[in-house]
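quick one if you have a minute, typing this from the bus. theres a chain ive been looking at and ive put its sequence and its fold in C-alpha coordinate form underneath. please have a look and point out which stretches look like helix strand or loop to you. anything you notice is useful, everything is just below.

***
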Amino acid sequence: MIIPFFTRLSVSVVLLITSLASAGCAVNSATGEQSFTAFMSPAEEIRIGQEQYPKILKEFGGVYQNPDLARYVGSIGQLLARTSETPSFTFIFTVLNSPVINAFATPGGFVYVTRGLLALADNEAELAGVMAHEIGHVVARHSAQRYSQAMAANLGVTLLGVLTNTPQIGRLAGLGANLYLSSYSREQEFEADMLGVRYLSRVGFSPHAMSAFLNKLQVNDALQLRLKGEEGKGPATSLLATHPRTAERVERAIANAGLDPVIDPVIARDIYLNKINGMLYGDDPAQGFIRGRDFIHPKLGFRFQVPQGFRLFNSAEAVTALGPNGARIFFDSAERRDDEPMLYYLTSRWADFLQDTEAIDVNGMQAATGHSLTDTEQGTMDVRLLAIAFDARTIFRFIFLAPVDDARDLSVDFRRTTYSFWRLQRGEAASVLPRRIKIIRARSGDSLRSLAEKMPFEDFQLERFRVLNGFAPGQEPASGQMIKIITD
Protein backbone atom coordinates (compact mmCIF):
# COMPACT_ATOMS: atom_id res chain seq x y z
CA MET A 1 0.00 0.00 0.00
CA ILE A 2 1.34 3.47 -0.90
CA ILE A 3 0.98 6.00 1.92
CA PRO A 4 0.10 9.49 0.64
CA PHE A 5 2.86 12.11 1.09
CA PHE A 6 0.76 14.31 3.40
CA THR A 7 -0.06 11.33 5.62
CA ARG A 8 3.61 10.32 5.85
CA LEU A 9 4.51 13.86 6.97
CA SER A 10 1.73 13.88 9.52
CA VAL A 11 2.89 10.55 10.94
CA SER A 12 6.46 11.90 11.18
CA VAL A 13 5.30 14.96 13.06
CA VAL A 14 3.18 12.89 15.43
CA LEU A 15 6.10 10.52 16.10
CA LEU A 16 8.40 13.48 16.83
CA ILE A 17 5.96 15.11 19.23
CA THR A 18 5.23 11.76 20.87
CA SER A 19 8.93 11.14 21.47
CA LEU A 20 9.32 14.61 22.97
CA ALA A 21 6.30 14.05 25.18
CA SER A 22 7.70 10.74 26.43
CA ALA A 23 11.07 12.32 27.18
CA GLY A 24 9.58 15.36 28.88
CA CYS A 25 6.99 13.69 31.11
CA ALA A 26 7.77 13.37 34.79
CA VAL A 27 5.76 12.65 37.91
CA ASN A 28 5.14 15.85 39.88
CA SER A 29 5.85 15.34 43.57
CA ALA A 30 2.88 17.48 44.63
CA THR A 31 0.18 16.14 42.35
CA GLY A 32 1.40 12.59 41.85
CA GLU A 33 0.54 12.97 38.18
CA GLN A 34 2.74 12.93 35.08
CA SER A 35 3.19 16.37 33.50
CA PHE A 36 4.76 17.41 30.21
CA THR A 37 7.44 20.06 30.89
CA ALA A 38 10.02 19.16 28.22
CA PHE A 39 10.56 22.70 27.01
CA MET A 40 11.05 24.45 30.37
CA SER A 41 13.43 23.31 33.09
CA PRO A 42 13.17 24.57 36.70
CA ALA A 43 16.22 26.76 36.08
CA GLU A 44 14.56 28.20 33.00
CA GLU A 45 11.42 28.93 35.03
CA ILE A 46 13.46 31.00 37.48
CA ARG A 47 15.19 32.86 34.65
CA ILE A 48 11.86 33.71 33.01
CA GLY A 49 10.35 34.80 36.31
CA GLN A 50 13.29 37.14 36.92
CA GLU A 51 13.00 38.58 33.41
CA GLN A 52 9.27 39.18 33.80
CA TYR A 53 9.54 40.82 37.22
CA PRO A 54 10.41 44.38 36.08
CA LYS A 55 7.88 44.15 33.23
CA ILE A 56 5.11 43.20 35.63
CA LEU A 57 6.04 46.03 38.00
CA LYS A 58 5.83 48.49 35.11
CA GLU A 59 2.43 47.19 34.00
CA PHE A 60 0.91 47.17 37.50
CA GLY A 61 2.11 50.47 38.92
CA GLY A 62 5.23 49.18 40.64
CA VAL A 63 5.63 47.83 44.17
CA TYR A 64 3.20 49.25 46.72
CA GLN A 65 5.44 51.22 49.05
CA ASN A 66 4.49 49.96 52.50
CA PRO A 67 7.31 47.83 53.97
CA ASP A 68 5.24 46.67 56.96
CA LEU A 69 2.41 45.44 54.73
CA ALA A 70 4.92 43.80 52.36
CA ARG A 71 6.53 41.90 55.26
CA TYR A 72 3.11 40.82 56.53
CA VAL A 73 1.93 39.51 53.15
CA GLY A 74 5.31 37.86 52.53
CA SER A 75 5.25 36.11 55.90
CA ILE A 76 1.87 34.53 55.12
CA GLY A 77 3.13 33.38 51.73
CA GLN A 78 6.38 31.94 53.11
CA LEU A 79 4.49 30.07 55.84
CA LEU A 80 2.24 28.45 53.24
CA ALA A 81 5.14 27.71 50.88
CA ARG A 82 7.08 25.89 53.62
CA THR A 83 4.22 23.41 53.96
CA SER A 84 4.32 22.56 50.24
CA GLU A 85 6.05 19.59 48.66
CA THR A 86 9.00 21.86 47.76
CA PRO A 87 9.68 23.60 51.11
CA SER A 88 13.22 24.66 50.16
CA PHE A 89 12.13 26.35 46.93
CA THR A 90 12.53 30.14 47.02
CA PHE A 91 9.32 32.12 46.59
CA ILE A 92 9.14 35.89 46.08
CA PHE A 93 5.90 37.60 47.18
CA THR A 94 5.12 41.12 45.92
CA VAL A 95 2.28 43.57 46.62
CA LEU A 96 1.54 45.53 43.45
CA ASN A 97 0.42 49.16 43.50
CA SER A 98 -2.69 48.52 41.45
CA PRO A 99 -6.39 49.02 42.30
CA VAL A 100 -7.26 46.11 40.01
CA ILE A 101 -8.32 43.00 41.93
CA ASN A 102 -5.80 40.41 40.84
CA ALA A 103 -3.33 37.76 41.97
CA PHE A 104 -1.11 35.58 39.83
CA ALA A 105 2.13 33.64 39.75
CA THR A 106 4.87 33.60 37.12
CA PRO A 107 7.44 30.85 36.58
CA GLY A 108 10.14 30.51 39.19
CA GLY A 109 8.06 31.17 42.29
CA PHE A 110 7.14 34.85 41.78
CA VAL A 111 3.71 35.44 43.35
CA TYR A 112 1.92 38.78 43.04
CA VAL A 113 -1.15 40.24 44.78
CA THR A 114 -2.53 43.73 44.15
CA ARG A 115 -3.59 46.21 46.81
CA GLY A 116 -7.00 46.09 45.11
CA LEU A 117 -7.28 42.46 46.17
CA LEU A 118 -6.06 43.27 49.68
CA ALA A 119 -8.81 45.88 49.96
CA LEU A 120 -11.51 43.35 49.04
CA ALA A 121 -10.26 40.56 51.32
CA ASP A 122 -11.74 40.69 54.82
CA ASN A 123 -9.29 38.64 56.87
CA GLU A 124 -5.97 36.84 56.85
CA ALA A 125 -7.57 33.50 55.97
CA GLU A 126 -9.08 34.87 52.75
CA LEU A 127 -5.76 36.35 51.66
CA ALA A 128 -4.02 33.07 52.52
CA GLY A 129 -6.55 31.22 50.36
CA VAL A 130 -5.64 33.34 47.35
CA MET A 131 -1.91 32.93 47.93
CA ALA A 132 -2.14 29.18 48.56
CA HIS A 133 -3.87 28.75 45.19
CA GLU A 134 -1.05 30.65 43.43
CA ILE A 135 1.58 28.60 45.28
CA GLY A 136 -0.25 25.52 44.00
CA HIS A 137 0.19 26.70 40.41
CA VAL A 138 3.94 27.13 40.99
CA VAL A 139 4.48 23.79 42.75
CA ALA A 140 2.49 21.94 40.07
CA ARG A 141 4.61 23.72 37.42
CA HIS A 142 1.55 24.75 35.46
CA SER A 143 3.42 27.53 33.62
CA ALA A 144 6.01 25.02 32.43
CA GLN A 145 3.21 22.72 31.29
CA ARG A 146 1.46 25.48 29.34
CA TYR A 147 4.69 26.64 27.75
CA SER A 148 5.78 23.12 26.80
CA GLN A 149 2.38 22.29 25.33
CA ALA A 150 2.43 25.51 23.31
CA MET A 151 5.96 24.83 22.07
CA ALA A 152 5.03 21.28 21.08
CA ALA A 153 1.95 22.52 19.23
CA ASN A 154 3.97 25.23 17.48
CA LEU A 155 6.73 22.78 16.62
CA GLY A 156 4.24 20.42 15.04
CA VAL A 157 2.50 23.02 12.90
CA THR A 158 5.81 24.68 11.98
CA LEU A 159 7.22 21.38 10.73
CA LEU A 160 3.99 20.73 8.88
CA GLY A 161 4.16 24.17 7.30
CA VAL A 162 7.79 23.76 6.26
CA LEU A 163 7.36 20.28 4.84
CA THR A 164 4.25 21.23 2.85
CA ASN A 165 5.71 24.63 1.87
CA THR A 166 2.79 26.45 3.51
CA PRO A 167 4.29 28.62 6.27
CA GLN A 168 0.93 30.35 6.87
CA ILE A 169 -0.27 27.07 8.44
CA GLY A 170 2.37 27.45 11.12
CA ARG A 171 1.48 31.08 11.79
CA LEU A 172 -2.27 30.49 12.05
CA ALA A 173 -2.13 27.28 14.04
CA GLY A 174 0.55 28.68 16.35
CA LEU A 175 -1.62 31.71 17.08
CA GLY A 176 -4.54 29.46 17.91
CA ALA A 177 -2.45 27.38 20.31
CA ASN A 178 -1.19 30.49 22.12
CA LEU A 179 -4.69 31.86 22.47
CA TYR A 180 -5.95 28.54 23.82
CA LEU A 181 -3.19 28.44 26.41
CA SER A 182 -3.51 32.09 27.45
CA SER A 183 -5.12 31.14 30.77
CA TYR A 184 -5.02 28.09 33.00
CA SER A 185 -7.23 25.17 32.06
CA ARG A 186 -10.08 24.09 34.28
CA GLU A 187 -8.07 21.01 35.25
CA GLN A 188 -5.07 23.12 36.26
CA GLU A 189 -7.28 25.45 38.30
CA PHE A 190 -8.81 22.47 40.08
CA GLU A 191 -5.35 21.06 40.73
CA ALA A 192 -4.15 24.39 42.18
CA ASP A 193 -7.24 24.46 44.41
CA MET A 194 -6.53 20.91 45.62
CA LEU A 195 -2.97 21.88 46.51
CA GLY A 196 -3.99 25.24 47.94
CA VAL A 197 -6.54 23.84 50.39
CA ARG A 198 -3.94 21.27 51.44
CA TYR A 199 -1.47 24.04 52.35
CA LEU A 200 -4.17 26.09 54.10
CA SER A 201 -5.11 23.15 56.30
CA ARG A 202 -1.49 22.39 57.18
CA VAL A 203 -1.00 25.95 58.44
CA GLY A 204 -4.26 26.04 60.38
CA PHE A 205 -6.52 28.07 58.09
CA SER A 206 -9.90 26.77 57.08
CA PRO A 207 -9.80 25.62 53.44
CA HIS A 208 -13.28 27.13 53.07
CA ALA A 209 -11.67 30.60 53.25
CA MET A 210 -10.73 30.08 49.60
CA SER A 211 -14.35 29.66 48.50
CA ALA A 212 -15.50 32.45 50.85
CA PHE A 213 -13.25 34.96 49.07
CA LEU A 214 -14.31 33.65 45.68
CA ASN A 215 -17.96 34.25 46.61
CA LYS A 216 -17.06 37.81 47.60
CA LEU A 217 -15.17 38.26 44.34
CA GLN A 218 -18.20 37.17 42.33
CA VAL A 219 -20.45 39.60 44.20
CA ASN A 220 -17.95 42.39 43.53
CA ASP A 221 -17.80 41.34 39.89
CA ALA A 222 -21.56 41.67 39.56
CA LEU A 223 -21.41 45.18 41.07
CA GLN A 224 -18.62 46.29 38.72
CA LEU A 225 -20.57 45.07 35.70
CA ARG A 226 -23.62 46.92 36.99
CA LEU A 227 -21.59 50.12 37.34
CA LYS A 228 -20.54 49.74 33.70
CA GLY A 229 -24.05 48.96 32.53
CA GLU A 230 -22.91 45.51 31.45
CA GLU A 231 -24.96 43.25 33.74
CA GLY A 232 -24.90 39.64 32.65
CA LYS A 233 -21.56 40.01 30.92
CA GLY A 234 -18.18 39.29 32.38
CA PRO A 235 -15.95 38.60 34.01
CA ALA A 236 -15.23 42.16 35.13
CA THR A 237 -12.12 41.41 37.20
CA SER A 238 -8.80 40.18 35.91
CA LEU A 239 -8.68 37.47 38.57
CA LEU A 240 -11.83 35.74 37.31
CA ALA A 241 -10.68 36.14 33.70
CA THR A 242 -7.34 34.39 34.26
CA HIS A 243 -8.63 31.96 36.92
CA PRO A 244 -11.96 30.56 35.67
CA ARG A 245 -13.30 29.18 38.96
CA THR A 246 -16.47 29.08 41.02
CA ALA A 247 -16.98 28.62 44.74
CA GLU A 248 -18.72 25.31 44.01
CA ARG A 249 -15.63 23.96 42.25
CA VAL A 250 -13.45 25.02 45.17
CA GLU A 251 -15.75 23.19 47.58
CA ARG A 252 -15.48 20.11 45.33
CA ALA A 253 -11.67 20.41 45.53
CA ILE A 254 -11.93 20.54 49.33
CA ALA A 255 -14.07 17.40 49.36
CA ASN A 256 -11.72 15.58 46.98
CA ALA A 257 -8.67 16.55 49.01
CA GLY A 258 -9.86 14.31 51.86
CA LEU A 259 -8.62 16.69 54.55
CA ASP A 260 -9.28 16.37 58.26
CA PRO A 261 -11.38 19.25 59.63
CA VAL A 262 -9.32 22.17 60.94
CA ILE A 263 -10.11 22.64 64.62
CA ASP A 264 -10.41 26.30 65.64
CA PRO A 265 -9.13 27.64 62.29
CA VAL A 266 -7.14 30.87 62.06
CA ILE A 267 -9.18 33.85 60.83
CA ALA A 268 -7.10 36.81 62.10
CA ARG A 269 -9.59 39.45 60.96
CA ASP A 270 -8.59 42.19 63.40
CA ILE A 271 -4.89 41.70 62.66
CA TYR A 272 -5.53 41.82 58.93
CA LEU A 273 -7.71 44.94 59.04
CA ASN A 274 -5.15 46.76 61.17
CA LYS A 275 -2.48 45.91 58.56
CA ILE A 276 -4.47 47.45 55.67
CA ASN A 277 -5.64 50.48 57.66
CA GLY A 278 -4.57 53.59 55.73
CA MET A 279 -3.80 51.69 52.53
CA LEU A 280 -4.42 53.51 49.24
CA TYR A 281 -7.79 52.71 47.69
CA GLY A 282 -8.53 53.18 44.01
CA ASP A 283 -6.29 55.29 41.83
CA ASP A 284 -2.76 56.24 42.80
CA PRO A 285 -1.91 59.97 42.49
CA ALA A 286 0.43 59.07 39.62
CA GLN A 287 -2.55 57.67 37.70
CA GLY A 288 -5.00 60.51 38.32
CA PHE A 289 -8.20 60.58 40.39
CA ILE A 290 -11.90 60.19 39.68
CA ARG A 291 -14.02 62.46 41.80
CA GLY A 292 -17.65 62.11 40.77
CA ARG A 293 -17.80 63.36 37.17
CA ASP A 294 -14.37 65.00 37.40
CA PHE A 295 -11.07 63.45 36.37
CA ILE A 296 -8.11 65.17 38.04
CA HIS A 297 -4.46 64.38 37.42
CA PRO A 298 -2.35 66.18 40.07
CA LYS A 299 0.95 64.90 38.72
CA LEU A 300 0.38 65.93 35.09
CA GLY A 301 -1.57 69.02 36.12
CA PHE A 302 -5.00 68.97 34.44
CA ARG A 303 -8.66 68.24 35.06
CA PHE A 304 -11.88 67.83 33.09
CA GLN A 305 -15.53 66.97 33.71
CA VAL A 306 -17.81 64.55 31.85
CA PRO A 307 -21.55 65.15 31.31
CA GLN A 308 -24.33 64.28 33.73
CA GLY A 309 -25.27 60.61 33.35
CA PHE A 310 -21.72 59.48 32.44
CA ARG A 311 -19.63 57.32 34.77
CA LEU A 312 -15.82 57.51 34.73
CA PHE A 313 -13.40 54.57 34.79
CA ASN A 314 -9.62 54.91 34.96
CA SER A 315 -6.96 52.51 33.69
CA ALA A 316 -3.28 52.68 32.82
CA GLU A 317 -4.13 52.97 29.12
CA ALA A 318 -7.03 55.45 29.07
CA VAL A 319 -9.85 57.13 30.94
CA THR A 320 -13.30 55.99 29.83
CA ALA A 321 -16.69 57.57 30.53
CA LEU A 322 -19.76 55.42 29.88
CA GLY A 323 -22.99 57.21 29.09
CA PRO A 324 -26.60 56.46 28.13
CA ASN A 325 -27.53 54.38 25.06
CA GLY A 326 -23.95 53.34 24.40
CA ALA A 327 -22.48 56.86 24.34
CA ARG A 328 -18.80 56.89 25.29
CA ILE A 329 -15.92 59.25 25.94
CA PHE A 330 -12.31 58.04 25.70
CA PHE A 331 -9.36 60.10 26.89
CA ASP A 332 -5.65 59.35 26.43
CA SER A 333 -2.38 60.97 25.39
CA ALA A 334 0.03 60.96 22.45
CA GLU A 335 3.50 62.31 21.73
CA ARG A 336 3.78 65.67 19.99
CA ARG A 337 6.50 66.17 17.39
CA ASP A 338 8.39 69.44 17.04
CA ASP A 339 5.53 71.69 18.19
CA GLU A 340 3.38 70.46 15.30
CA PRO A 341 0.04 72.27 14.78
CA MET A 342 -2.91 70.33 16.15
CA LEU A 343 -4.86 70.51 12.90
CA TYR A 344 -1.96 68.82 11.11
CA TYR A 345 -1.72 66.15 13.84
CA LEU A 346 -5.46 65.54 13.75
CA THR A 347 -5.77 65.09 9.99
CA SER A 348 -2.36 63.65 9.10
CA ARG A 349 -1.22 61.56 12.03
CA TRP A 350 -4.38 60.61 13.89
CA ALA A 351 -7.29 60.37 11.44
CA ASP A 352 -7.62 61.23 7.76
CA PHE A 353 -11.34 60.45 7.47
CA LEU A 354 -12.79 63.36 9.44
CA GLN A 355 -15.17 66.00 8.20
CA ASP A 356 -15.57 69.65 9.23
CA THR A 357 -12.15 69.80 10.82
CA GLU A 358 -11.12 73.05 12.48
CA ALA A 359 -8.48 74.54 14.72
CA ILE A 360 -9.82 75.81 18.05
CA ASP A 361 -8.55 77.22 21.33
CA VAL A 362 -9.26 75.32 24.57
CA ASN A 363 -8.58 77.59 27.52
CA GLY A 364 -5.43 79.01 25.96
CA MET A 365 -4.23 75.69 24.52
CA GLN A 366 -4.00 75.02 20.79
CA ALA A 367 -6.46 72.30 19.72
CA ALA A 368 -8.23 70.82 16.71
CA THR A 369 -11.42 68.84 16.22
CA GLY A 370 -13.47 67.06 13.55
CA HIS A 371 -16.16 64.41 13.28
CA SER A 372 -17.33 61.48 11.18
CA LEU A 373 -19.71 58.50 11.23
CA THR A 374 -18.53 54.99 12.09
CA ASP A 375 -20.14 51.56 12.24
CA THR A 376 -19.93 49.71 15.56
CA GLU A 377 -21.54 46.69 17.20
CA GLN A 378 -24.11 49.12 18.61
CA GLY A 379 -24.92 50.51 15.16
CA THR A 380 -23.85 53.68 13.39
CA MET A 381 -22.27 56.18 15.76
CA ASP A 382 -21.23 59.80 15.46
CA VAL A 383 -17.58 60.18 16.43
CA ARG A 384 -15.85 63.45 17.25
CA LEU A 385 -12.09 63.62 17.81
CA LEU A 386 -10.35 66.35 19.77
CA ALA A 387 -6.59 66.89 20.11
CA ILE A 388 -5.20 69.40 22.62
CA ALA A 389 -1.54 70.55 22.69
CA PHE A 390 -0.78 70.47 26.39
CA ASP A 391 2.90 71.30 25.98
CA ALA A 392 5.67 70.98 23.42
CA ARG A 393 5.79 67.17 23.73
CA THR A 394 2.33 66.11 24.91
CA ILE A 395 -1.05 65.88 23.20
CA PHE A 396 -4.18 64.97 25.12
CA ARG A 397 -6.94 63.38 23.08
CA PHE A 398 -10.69 62.92 23.45
CA ILE A 399 -12.93 60.61 21.43
CA PHE A 400 -16.62 61.45 21.81
CA LEU A 401 -18.88 58.65 20.60
CA ALA A 402 -22.68 58.93 20.42
CA PRO A 403 -25.54 57.11 18.68
CA VAL A 404 -26.60 59.07 15.61
CA ASP A 405 -30.05 59.73 17.08
CA ASP A 406 -28.52 61.20 20.25
CA ALA A 407 -25.62 63.09 18.67
CA ARG A 408 -27.44 66.42 18.41
CA ASP A 409 -28.61 66.32 22.04
CA LEU A 410 -25.17 65.31 23.30
CA SER A 411 -23.23 67.84 21.22
CA VAL A 412 -23.68 70.58 23.84
CA ASP A 413 -22.60 68.24 26.64
CA PHE A 414 -19.53 67.13 24.70
CA ARG A 415 -18.66 70.78 24.02
CA ARG A 416 -18.86 71.48 27.76
CA THR A 417 -16.49 68.58 28.43
CA THR A 418 -14.11 69.98 25.80
CA TYR A 419 -13.93 73.37 27.49
CA SER A 420 -13.82 71.88 30.98
CA PHE A 421 -10.26 70.76 30.22
CA TRP A 422 -8.10 73.07 32.37
CA ARG A 423 -4.57 73.25 33.64
CA LEU A 424 -4.48 72.90 37.41
CA GLN A 425 -3.55 76.09 39.18
CA ARG A 426 -0.71 76.26 41.65
CA GLY A 427 -1.86 74.69 44.91
CA GLU A 428 -4.77 72.81 43.33
CA ALA A 429 -2.77 69.63 42.84
CA ALA A 430 -1.70 69.53 46.49
CA SER A 431 -5.30 69.88 47.65
CA VAL A 432 -6.43 66.71 45.86
CA LEU A 433 -5.74 63.75 48.14
CA PRO A 434 -5.99 60.04 47.33
CA ARG A 435 -8.64 57.84 48.87
CA ARG A 436 -7.63 55.42 51.60
CA ILE A 437 -9.08 52.58 53.62
CA LYS A 438 -9.96 53.56 57.16
CA ILE A 439 -10.82 51.00 59.82
CA ILE A 440 -13.45 52.06 62.36
CA ARG A 441 -15.59 50.25 64.91
CA ALA A 442 -19.34 50.23 64.53
CA ARG A 443 -21.18 51.91 67.38
CA SER A 444 -24.54 51.08 68.86
CA GLY A 445 -27.20 52.36 66.48
CA ASP A 446 -24.99 52.26 63.39
CA SER A 447 -26.59 50.66 60.35
CA LEU A 448 -25.24 49.57 57.00
CA ARG A 449 -26.83 52.64 55.43
CA SER A 450 -25.48 55.13 57.97
CA LEU A 451 -21.98 53.70 57.64
CA ALA A 452 -22.20 53.55 53.85
CA GLU A 453 -23.09 57.24 53.77
CA LYS A 454 -19.64 58.00 55.18
CA MET A 455 -18.16 56.79 51.89
CA PRO A 456 -17.22 59.51 49.33
CA PHE A 457 -19.17 58.01 46.42
CA GLU A 458 -22.04 59.67 44.58
CA ASP A 459 -23.90 56.46 43.80
CA PHE A 460 -24.23 52.83 44.90
CA GLN A 461 -22.92 53.72 48.36
CA LEU A 462 -24.75 50.89 50.11
CA GLU A 463 -23.77 48.30 47.49
CA ARG A 464 -20.11 49.36 47.54
CA PHE A 465 -20.02 49.27 51.35
CA ARG A 466 -21.67 45.85 51.51
CA VAL A 467 -19.22 44.34 49.00
CA LEU A 468 -16.19 45.94 50.67
CA ASN A 469 -17.11 44.45 54.04
CA GLY A 470 -18.68 41.19 52.91
CA PHE A 471 -22.12 41.83 54.37
CA ALA A 472 -24.95 39.61 53.14
CA PRO A 473 -28.29 41.22 52.20
CA GLY A 474 -30.20 42.04 55.38
CA GLN A 475 -27.16 41.68 57.62
CA GLU A 476 -26.36 44.60 59.93
CA PRO A 477 -23.10 45.45 61.74
CA ALA A 478 -22.67 44.48 65.36
CA SER A 479 -21.67 47.07 67.94
CA GLY A 480 -17.87 47.11 68.22
CA GLN A 481 -17.34 45.28 64.93
CA MET A 482 -14.37 46.48 62.88
CA ILE A 483 -15.53 48.01 59.59
CA LYS A 484 -13.79 49.19 56.40
CA ILE A 485 -14.80 52.55 55.01
CA ILE A 486 -13.22 54.71 52.30
CA THR A 487 -12.14 58.27 53.02
CA ASP A 488 -10.61 61.12 51.00
Remarks:
- Residues 434-487 form a domain with the Membrane-bound Lytic Murein Transglycosylase D; Chain A fold (CATH 3.10.350).
